[in-house]
Automatic annotation (TrEMBL):
<keyword id="KW-0436">Ligase</keyword>
<dbReference type="InterPro" id="IPR050089">
    <property type="entry name" value="SAICAR_synthetase"/>
</dbReference>
<keyword id="KW-0658">Purine biosynthesis</keyword>
<dbReference type="GO" id="GO:0005524">
    <property type="term" value="F:ATP binding"/>
</dbReference>
<dbReference type="InterPro" id="IPR033934">
    <property type="entry name" value="SAICAR_synt_PurC"/>
</dbReference>
<feature type="domain" description="SAICAR synthetase/ADE2 N-terminal">
    <location>
        <begin position="6"/>
        <end position="235"/>
    </location>
</feature>
<comment type="similarity">
    <text>Belongs to the SAICAR synthetase family.</text>
</comment>
<keyword id="KW-0067">ATP-binding</keyword>
<protein>
    <recommendedName>
        <fullName>Phosphoribosylaminoimidazole-succinocarboxamide synthase</fullName>
        <ecNumber>6.3.2.6</ecNumber>
    </recommendedName>
</protein>
<dbReference type="InterPro" id="IPR018236">
    <property type="entry name" value="SAICAR_synthetase_CS"/>
</dbReference>
<comment type="pathway">
    <text>Purine metabolism; IMP biosynthesis via de novo pathway; 5-amino-1-(5-phospho-D-ribosyl)imidazole-4-carboxamide from 5-amino-1-(5-phospho-D-ribosyl)imidazole-4-carboxylate: step 1/2.</text>
</comment>
<keyword id="KW-0547">Nucleotide-binding</keyword>
<dbReference type="InterPro" id="IPR001636">
    <property type="entry name" value="SAICAR_synth"/>
</dbReference>
<dbReference type="GO" id="GO:0009236">
    <property type="term" value="P:cobalamin biosynthetic process"/>
</dbReference>
<dbReference type="GO" id="GO:0004639">
    <property type="term" value="F:phosphoribosylaminoimidazolesuccinocarboxamide synthase activity"/>
</dbReference>
<dbReference type="GO" id="GO:0006189">
    <property type="term" value="P:'de novo' IMP biosynthetic process"/>
</dbReference>
<dbReference type="GO" id="GO:0005829">
    <property type="term" value="C:cytosol"/>
</dbReference>
Length: 242
């Protein structure tokens, strides 16, 4: 077996050098962390499920005409992705108040927001990913104004698309986090969607029972974590055969 060079290890994924320049292999781990790494655990089979779920959703997004880093699935835990220079922002889109938004503004979890709310957080573990404004992003040159325009437009279109996909599966898309990067191809630079879209970075509630089907089950010790991830894959019709 060829030993691939590991380029980066994150909390839930590892990036390896790809077969040709400009391509990487993204490996999905079962490891789970919460509270910026203060809580650690393993969700058995999570990597396999997130690989499938993210493949499915990224493919749909690509079909909308929004560029993504996803190229193809290689095996149960790995996908080939385009190399990007990550833009150090966590882009959160919210439809319903939950988590840190509910806490910050004293809202009851489950309150529908009058319109989708887009927030930016500066991706920096040492600082606990602080909430930032567009002004911070431009002043500190984390992204240009053109890039930020793309990110804003893409994020809202992705929200429409994902909300519809999940609604069709009886699931409410409460909120989610996206990451974007700069991809260079033939002297052209463009913003593309990177990272993953899975129950690790979305809040997903059953439309009938409001049961949580996402990583909040791990964060809040609600139990049945593996089952929740499986349920999402099953509802989307992408549950792999083990
Ligand atoms: O915690 P908070 O309410 O700000 O999270 C909003 C959304 O962003 C949730 O869906 C959560 O899963 C996601 N998120 C994430 N990674 C982070 C912070 C939040 O995927 N570091």
């Amino acid at each position: 077996m060829v030993r691939r060079r590991q380029l980066y290890e994150g909390k839930a994924k590892i990036l390896f050098e790809g077969p040709t320049p400009g391509l990487l292999v993204q490996y999905f781990k079962d490891d789970a962390t919460a509270g910026n790494g203060t809580k650690k655990g393993v969700i058995a089979g999570k990597g396999v499920l997130n690989n499938r779920i993210s493949e499915y959703l990224m493919t749909g997004i690509e079909e909308l005409g929004i560029p993504t880093h996803f190229v193809k699935t290689l095996n149960m835990r790995e996908q080939l992705v385009k190399e990007v220079e990550i833009i150090p922002l966590e882009v959160v889109v919210r439809n319903i108040a939950a988590g840190s938004l509910a806490k910050r503004f004293g809202l009851e979890e489950g309150t529908r927001l009058p319109r989708p709310l887009l927030e930016y957080y500066y991706k920096n573990d040492d600082l606990n990913d602080p909430l930032v404004s567009e002004e911070h992003i431009l002043a500190f040159e984390w992204a240009t104004s053109d890039e930020l325009n793309d990110i804003y437009t893409y994020a809202l279109r992705i929200n429409d698309f994902l909300s519809g996909v999940f609604r069709g599966s009886g699931v409410l898309l409460v909120d989610f986090k996206l990451e974007f990067g700069r991809h260079y191809e033939e002297d052209e630079k463009r913003v593309i969607l990177a990272d993953e879209i899975s129950p690790d970075n979305c809040r997903l509630w059953d439309m009938k029972t409001s049961e949580k089907l996402d990583k909040d089950r791990f964060r809040r010790d609600l139990g049945q974590v593996e089952q929740a991830y499986q349920e999402v894959a099953k509802r989307l019709g992408v549950l792999p055969e083990f």
